[in-house]
Here is the input.
Amino acid sequence: MAPLENLIVLEFCQYMSGPSAGMRMADLGATVIKIERPGTGEGGRQLAIRNLFAGNNSVLFHTINRNKLSYSANLKDPSDLIKIKKLIEKADVLIHNFRPGVMEKLELGFRDCARINPKLIYGEISGYGKEGKWQAKPGQDLLLQSISGLTWLSGNKNDPPVPFGLSIADYMCGTHLVQGILAALIARSKTGKGALIEVNLLSSLIDFQFEVITTHLNDSGKLPDRALKGNAHAYLSAPYGIYATSDGHLAMAMEDLKYLAAALELPQIIPLAEDGFTHRDQIMAAIASALASASTRHWLSIFEPADIWCAEVQNYDQFTSHPGYLAMNLEQSITLADGQQLKTTRCPIRIDGHIFRSSKPGPEVGADNRQLEQTLL
Amino acid sequence: MNKPLEDILVIDLSQFLSGPSASLKLADLGARVIKIERPKTGDISRHMYISDVQMNGASSVFHAINRNKESYIADLKRPQDVAKILELIKKADIVMHNFRPGVMERLGLDYTTIQAIHPNVIYGEISGYGTEGPWKNKPGQDLLLQALTGMCYLSGNADMAPVAMGISLVDIATGGHLVQGLLASLIRRGVTGKGALVQVSMLESACDLQFESITCYLNDGHQLPERTLQNNANAYLGAPYGIYKTKDGYLAIAMTAVNKLGELINCQKLINYTDPAGWFTYREQIKAILGAHLSTESTHHWLAILEPADIWCAQVQSWRELLADISLKETIKTQRVVMQDGYSFETTRCPILINGQPMLSEKGTPTLGQDNEHIDDTLLADLIKEKSVNH
Here is the structure.
């Protein structure tokens, strides 16, 4: 049995943070129903990356909304609102990522919903919490990365701020929302009571940086110092970084500098190794010039048998054709209404050896109205 | 009930970041977490210093990850210590580890063995690359996973070498997934009474982290991500999405209609880009024009124009500016925790609010083995009494 089977989740969400939380609960067996405005549905349907669409919706929409149902309703129409309240009566979880105040105006705030269903777990995502000058600003991933200090951790010392090239604020916040909701469901099985779970993108990015912000809070407030070249972590000492070889790049993690001094014939780094952090740029430059002289394969054939922590820097072609990727069955197919198949990633959690898959695509707007009205309503 | 996991006992045999970051979340949500550590050295990250910051004899990283836990020393190569751990596990709801494949089997602490003595335990395990394939014995280290999974071609500009993301994000994502799997299994146990084996790997989590870009790659005829030459923030998005230099700092601009943006900042060349499809196709040109234009004035100048027009933009800040923002005082609040010896320090707090309450705990980081005596006297009292009778 999938662990969340029999749970009903209503998702009043758009774009990524909320829908990624709904996706994970769907992966784990919950029935997730997107509540969408008639006609256009949620904004994420038209948000494409690389202008890539499949049918009426972006491939991105299917990526984030696989394995869900859709119920369309005009939340400003009283007769539709009555139906939504009926669905809330039957639901275990409700999540939304509207800006603060929107759900309350629709009489679908936590208090309203708790009156309808006292056992409901009500999860909400905001951008910045419910305060501050940014409250009315959109909770958009790049803006959150920029505000939270995160962009000063990647790239080299003389580079401008470098953002993470994936939606990390949305992703982490969705992860935290699921954690809070599941914990509240566990408590509910003992107390019978619902709960309000609140997360926001900014708090999630602070939590994401918990190691380095804790360091900053206890090192007299120093700011991160990226390495001059090949930086992979502003706070880790040499050799931690990425190095060019004669035909590609090699990533190297924490390693014994004495071993590297011998293997690469770099006696000059031994006196510097006493303090690998202060002399980081010098040590990394010496290692870089040595590694540039031969191929990635060459270095791997020396380092891997010596259990040196290193790896080839691969692109998606190399990664997705590697036997290590293929052995773990990391893809799944979803089938659109017209028979077209899309390939996507799958749930990263295995339970009792079982891999959770589903061929169900992102739903069309209102695709499940009739069925839900016949069963739940 | 104040915290949702208040009566849950977790026996955590993991070290470094992926596993311990998961048990920190469980602890913050109310669980009692007992960290099992080897004699003398304990968790290796106690002494894995980042920069040169040392706090009361341990690294700042260790404190950040392991506050709010107890520490119990056991030598897993000694049968009498393994017997104690088995006894603790019998009383636990969750047991978790992040050893390389095969280690727990050798120690007699693998799922099959544990399940036989405690059928409804939830057993969580983290591996680097899963249980199959040629990578399975490779070290599960964050940077190596970033390198192998294509992630280093997503950040930075096109003319830069591959750029690593400067946080151990694969560790953190994997820990996050383990928490989800463990909690989902506890929910199922509430219904069926049955335990579970929850397995996650850094490889699977790294794919999930890149679910948007990998899915795009798998369906667009295998085109590799192309970072833009300047101002890259997402290889898959059109202009203006990126960070731009101003006269005195940096400004981030997210998805926005390029022609509308051109009108607002009075840049005629941008006003001509009226076709939304062109904002991706011509993103290099647009970014070059926009970058040159924005560099002529201060960040505040542009914010004063763009914010009232509801353009998605923000000033790029450091932690100093973030933590000094009094308008966000609740959201950025930290907490102070206290160790048993009185040493206290400031750290971040759990990002989840429940019924309006933050999940706080004053409990600091444990010193190595600080809780052995108490745990021997309480959770293990029966086992230890039995032993002394037998002698």
About this structure: Chain A is about 35% helix and 15% strand. The mean pLDDT of chain A is 96. Chain A has two domains: 8-208+328-375, 241-320. Residues 241-320 of chain A form a domain with the formyl-coa transferase, domain 3 fold (CATH 3.30.1540.10).
